[in-house]
Write a sequence for this structure.
């Protein structure tokens, strides 16, 4: 009876929200490779989560798969006792490198993402729509963050003198300052991200992990979030209140800033740099 009830719930959910109820081989392989790096308790938490996360949606030409549960209301979280101790908004904990073979060999990277201690997504660096006919030849995994450990700040003090030198006269308007993460954590998060961040942003986060200045909100490294769109996968690192998110695009290595307007479906390249954005919106 429980199985029938669950199937009926899945069908109802699919009719309302769409998605699928089956993982593809390359997606399963990413999870299997990540599992090999875990402790017994980590494996238990992952397998328990996967028993709950039974609906999947794919975005950006299937380059992003996100995990959902038909047992939890939309937007709800898994029970606390089955979530990993690493409970940041988005954490890219591991990258799996797959080598696949069809007419020719193809290499692809899949980044595993957690949110608040639960499995959120796998982000691939290219569209895997033609992977169904390919055979996986080899796989290896590189871990970035331990899901069984929380990120803690080594210092609660923001060096405002250095911040003043970076932001200039507008620094006095900055608020909601968060202390910078330890170097090892910054390095791990940056390396796991599927895009290059602007050089100005990288200088700022050496001193402060996020701040607000006027209408401009600069997110800390641990608060960067992914935004799958029809024109690609973007990583949002800042926002202009009421107007747009600022992001970099996955797969690009130039730190180019994109304006993701709240009233526009198309992303556009921003002409101004972050200093120019602070001058415009920071007072």
């Amino acid at each position: 009876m429980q199985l029938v009830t669950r199937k009926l719930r899945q069908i109802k959910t699919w009719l309302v929200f769409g998605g699928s109820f089956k993982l593809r081989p390359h997606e399963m392989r990413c999870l299997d490779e990540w599992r090999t790096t875990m402790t017994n308790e980590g494996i238990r938490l992952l397998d328990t989560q996967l028993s709950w996360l039974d609906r999947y949606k794919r975005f950006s030409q299937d380059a992003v798969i996100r995990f959902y549960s038909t047992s939890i209301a939309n937007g709800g979280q898994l029970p606390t006792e089955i979530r990993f101790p690493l409970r940041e908004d988005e954490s890219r904990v591991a990258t799996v490198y797959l080598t696949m073979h069809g007419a020719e060999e193809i290499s692809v990277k899949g980044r595993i993402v957690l949110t608040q201690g639960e499995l959120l997504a796998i982000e691939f660096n290219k569209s895997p729509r033609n992977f169904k006919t390919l055979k996986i030849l080899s796989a290896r995994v590189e871990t970035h963050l331990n899901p069984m450990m929380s990120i803690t700040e080594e210092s609660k003090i923001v060096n405002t003198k250095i911040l003043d030198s970076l932001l200039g006269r507008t620094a006095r308007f900055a608020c909601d300052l968060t202390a910078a993460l330890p170097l090892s954590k910054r390095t791990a998060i940056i390396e796991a991200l599927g895009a290059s961040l602007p050089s100005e942003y990288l200088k700022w986060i050496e001193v402060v992990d996020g701040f607000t200045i006027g209408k401009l909100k600069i997110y800390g490294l641990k608060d960067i979030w992914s935004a799958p769109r029809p024109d690609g996968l973007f990583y949002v690192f800042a926002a202009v209140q009421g107007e747009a998110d600022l992001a970099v695009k996955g797969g690009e290595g130039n730190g180019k800033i994109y304006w993701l307007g709240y009233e526009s479906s198309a992303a556009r390249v921003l002409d101004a740099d972050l200093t120019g954005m602070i001058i415009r919106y920071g007072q």
Q: What stands out?
A: The two ends are 61 Å apart (CA to CA).
